[in-house]
């Protein structure tokens, strides 16, 4: 899979997610969603394996 393919999939999700849940896509929403995802990444990094 190429980076262009991954980018297109992410862009599609960014359109479908708010539509599915009735969310107004705004700059505030995008910032909060990014913050949520970074928090999940940090949690995964800090969780010990096994």
Question: Which terms would index this structure?
Answer:
mainly alpha
Characterise the protein shown here.
This protein has a domain of 27 residues. The longest helix has 20 residues. The chain is an all-alpha fold and 50 residues long. It is built from 2 helices and no strands. The mean pLDDT is 91. The protein is extended.
Number of helices: 2
Structural class, from helix and strand content? mainly alpha
Strand fraction: under 5%
What fraction, in percent, of the residue positions are helical? over 70%
Largest sheet: none
Taking pLDDT < 50 over at least 5 consecutive residues as the criterion, the unreliable ranges are none
Count of distinct strands: 0
**N-to-C CA distance:** 29 Å
- Shape type: extended
Arithmetic mean of pLDDT:
91
Rg, nearest Å: 14 Å
Order of helices and strands: HH
List the helices and strands and how they pair.
Elements: H1 3-21, H2 27-46
Short note summarizing the structure:
The chain is an all-alpha fold and 50 residues long. The protein has helices spanning 3-21, 27-46.
């Amino acid at each position: 899979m190429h980076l262009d393919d991954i980018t297109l999939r992410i862009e599609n999700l960014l359109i479908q997610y708010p539509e599915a849940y009735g969310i107004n896509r705004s700059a505030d929403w995008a910032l909060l969603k990014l913050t949520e995802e970074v928090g999940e990444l940090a949690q995964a990094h800090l969780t010990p394996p096994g």
